[in-house]
Amino acid sequence: MRLGGDGIFFMLALAAMVFMGSAAARTWRHATLTERSKSQAEQLSHWMAAAHAAGRGQDFLPQACAAPQPLAETSPRWGACAQALMADAGPLGAMRNAFTGAPLQLIDKCKPGQAATVGQLVLEKLMPPVPGTSTPAAAVPLVEGDALAPALALRLQVCDAAGYAIHVADLDF
Contact, 66 vs 78, CB < 8 A? Predict the structure, then answer.
């Protein structure tokens, strides 16, 4: 059997359709997993907003994230709070990375092209702009030694399938 120009064209068209179908399926799967990751980040955002509204008093759980008390010798620190959030009883304890199934992590920043950041959460501290300038608030990573002020301005992001940051919320905690 001899293939003519029409046969070759139809074989190439079929191959292109199969390729496009597989690319569309992969894109759909990544989009679904990204939306699941965003949903988890929104759950954390709602929990943090409710915690801020409640005042994070002495009876607040996890205690490591409670607001500083007047006359206290030391303020709670972000490192202890982050560990409490990630513990089994914490608000992130039961959440899993939608892409890998591993426990969800709070990381410093999304790194495009690095698989370790895909699906992870990023919490950054928002620094107010310098008075008299037109620059917007700057976002800097939270470090373990950061004190948990009564109202800490935060930016919550999630890393997508390619490792790029997707903004979820700016909130007070």
Answer: no
Question: d(Cα 11, Cα 33) in Å, to the nearest integer?
Answer: 33
pLDDT at residue 111 in the model: 95
Q: Cα separation of 141 and 58, whole Å?
A: 26
Tell me the HSE value of 48 on the side-chain side, using a 13 A CA sphere: 26
Per residue in 44-57, pLDDT (tens digit) is 898 888 888 877 77
Q: Are strands 106-107 and 121-127 parallel, antiparallel or unpaired?
A: parallel
Tens digits of per-residue pLDDT, 31-40?
999 999 999 9
The whole-number average pLDDT for the span 79-107 is 88
To which residue do tokens 């790029």 refer? 164
The distance in angstroms from the start CA to the end CA of the chain is 73
Residues 6+ apart with CB under 8 A from 6: none
